[in-house]
């Protein structure tokens, strides 16, 4: 049985970003035949509309560019994405870098000035806390290697 991998839905081509576009990545087709992708978009799952205002993490809150506190939606979406990933038995996740939900390693600093700082998005934190091995899209080759290694 192929391993289940949670994937940020926008990386798989879904037009679910805040501007209703996708972030389809080149290696997705190769990954998709090696695993059972479990597509998650935590922002949509948390009840936010598409398109929507961009948001960034500010301290322990997530705030939109208009100043709306969307922390609850982000937390609800993270919980729902985690539930789906765990139900499917995902040991790995491929997450969209820099997103306040999915970002792993770096996120924007909360000033809406395109400034990255070290840190994880709300969903990436939840996945890591539960022991899911998370990879950003620039690490897709490492993820594919890890899947091959697990199947040996
Ligand atoms: Fe993509 Fe994640 Fe943002 Fe949804 S929440 S659009 S999956 S980066």
Question: What would a concise description of this structure say?
Answer:
InterPro entries: 2-thiour_desulf (IPR007553). With 152 residues, the protein is of the alpha/beta class. The protein contains five helices and eight strands, in the order βαβαββαβββαβα.
Verbal overview:
With 152 residues, this protein is of the alpha/beta class. The chain has one domain (4-151). It is 32% helix and 21% strand. It contains five helices and eight strands; from the N terminus they run E-H-E-H-E-E-H-E-E-E-H-E-H. The protein has helices spanning 28-34, 42-45, 71-87, 122-129, 140-151; strands at 4-8, 36-40, 55-58, 61-64, 92-95, 106-108, 116-118, 133-136. The protein has a four-stranded parallel sheet with strand order 2-1-5-8, sandwiched between helices. It has a two-stranded antiparallel ribbon with strand order 3-4. A hairpin with a 7-residue loop joins strand 6 and strand 7 (116-118). Helix 1 (28-34) packs parallel to helix 5 and helix 3 runs parallel beside helix 4 (122-129). The longest helix is centred in the middle third of the chain and has 17 residues, at 71-87. The chain is globular. The structure holds iron/sulfur cluster. Iron/sulfur cluster (SF4) binds at residues 8-10, 16-17, 41-43, 96, 99, 101-102. Pfam families: 2-thiour_desulf.
Please give the count of helices: 5
Class based on secondary structure composition and strand pairing? alpha/beta
Ligand inventory: iron/sulfur cluster
Instruction: Please report the total strand number as a whole number.
Output: 8
Strand order of the largest sheet: 2-1-5-8
Q: Tell me the helix content.
A: 25-40%
* Average of per-residue pLDDT values: 97
How can the largest sheet be summarized?
A: 4 strands, parallel
The arrangement of helices and strands along the chain is: EHEHEEHEEEHEH
N- and C-termini, Cα separation: 13 Å
Q: Low-confidence stretches at least 5 residues in length (pLDDT < 50)?
A: none
Rg value: 15 Å
Q: Tell me, what's the shape?
A: globular
Strand share of the residues? 15-25%
How many individual domains?
1
């Amino acid at each position: 049985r192929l391993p289940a991998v949670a994937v940020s839905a926008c990386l798989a081509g879904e037009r679910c970003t805040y501007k209703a576009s996708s972030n389809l990545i080149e290696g997705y087709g190769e990954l998709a035949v090696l695993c059972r992708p479990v597509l998650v978009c935590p922002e949509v799952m948390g009840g936010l509309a598409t398109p929507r205002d961009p948001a960034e993490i500010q301290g322990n809150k997530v705030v939109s560019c208009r100043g709306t506190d969307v922390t609850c939606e982000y937390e609800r979406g993270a919980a729902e994405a985690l539930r789906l990933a765990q139900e499917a038995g995902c040991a790995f996740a491929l997450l969209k870098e820099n997103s306040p939900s999915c970002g792993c390693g770096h996120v924007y600093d909360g000033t809406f000035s395109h400034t990255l700082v070290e840190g994880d998005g709300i969903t990436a934190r939840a996945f890591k806390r539960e022991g899911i091995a998370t990879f950003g899209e620039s690490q897709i080759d490492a993820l594919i290697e890890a899947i091959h290694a697990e199947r040996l």
